[in-house]
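Protein 1 of 2
SEQ + STRUCT:
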Amino acid sequence: MIRASFPKAVVFLHAFPLNKDMYRAQFCAFEREGIPYIALDYPGFGDAPNLPGEYSVERLTDYVINEVRKFRVKEVVFVGDSMGGYIMFDAWRRYREIVKGFVFVATRAEADTEEGKKARYALIERVEKGGKDFLIDVMLENQTSPATKKDESKMRKLRCIMERATKEGIIKTLKALAERRDNTDLLPTIDVPTLVIAGRDDEKVTPPEVVKKIADGIKGAKYYELEDAAHLPPFENPKKFNEIVIPFVKEVLGL
């Protein structure tokens, strides 16, 4: 899903193990507002085939930047949920000339703890032996709020999105996430307009107090907590998410 024919655009970066369709409600709203955007799938997710070799956050960032450059977009506002935020930090570290603004969603600046790494590698082992179905069940449980769980239609849509992830893509990406670097040192250097959004009900993945550390570390950043949302605010509470994000990106892009 691409709508980019302007020098400036929003770039949507999805969470693991989803794809660009988690932002479907944003696509419609942005089109109504005339906001140009690019929505990408990482290799092995959604419509994007796997790449040969191992993945790292840096390699995924290079992939994203190369895709953006194909459309001659010179400046972007990144909107990234969860692992999308990790790619955004790396983009700031190595490609900051392209960054016009940031919307960090349900993510963290810290690297995985040793315990966190062990948990990811345990997931990899289970996926290698038994496939991805159990992981999707775990993610559906851990990433959604009580309100989302009660909405059968939303849960079905979310499962369909996750099921498009390939086994190979899941395994390679889990390794990349486990080995990612710590980004807390970058926070004081970020000097572009920044929004930070947490899901109020995110108790298991990125609790609000963890997400807020990003806003606290970036001068001038604005922080919001969305009700009826856990780890996937753009999908779980799109109305409130759009109300916050659309005015921000329009101002940053000068629309």
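Protein 2 of 2
SEQ + STRUCT:
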Amino acid sequence: MGKKEDFRDKEDFRSMEELHESVLRKEEQIPEEGNERGPWWMYAIIIGTLAFGFFYMGRYLGEISHHPHVLFTDRGPAVAEEAVFDPMETGRRVYTRVCQACHQQNGAGVAGAFPPLAGSEWVSGDPQIPVLLVLHGLEGEIVRNGTTYNAPMPGFGRLLSDEEIAGVVTYIRNSFGNEASEVTPEDVEEIRADASERQRAWTENEVEAFMESRDIQ
């Protein structure tokens, strides 16, 4: 019998495992499910949507601020407009806050305690007198239309500004049936300076004496 023929590949002596590994390395690796790349147009839509969303929020929902809990919509004017002084409105607010409890809403006062402002010569006459009384107050008895009033009036010079005093004096001089000239903050500033040494409330006689001294000057 002749020699048995060897059917093995005479040029490749690798084992079956080595052959399988070689074939697998040559093949393109199959991607795992869920990790496949999407089409380019899908990424373009996502990017476009995000860009539009940020633009819309920045344009219509406010701007980003370094201040917490602050949402900006429209920027205010660079320079705030200066408020116009309205003596009657300012005076009305001051009167309601500090005068109305004693002199009443209608300016009629309280019998035996606080004199009426309606029809008062001190209110409608020389504006310096009501300014002095608001600045420093009034004490002692005064008689008006046969009625004696003896409740003290506190001074508000340290609590009210020149504008507030000018406003409230203008208000009482043009309310409750009174008609008189307006008092300006400059008027109050001047009177305040002239009576700066006054440290206590006026009496009726002291008010009249002070007014006479100013008339002489």
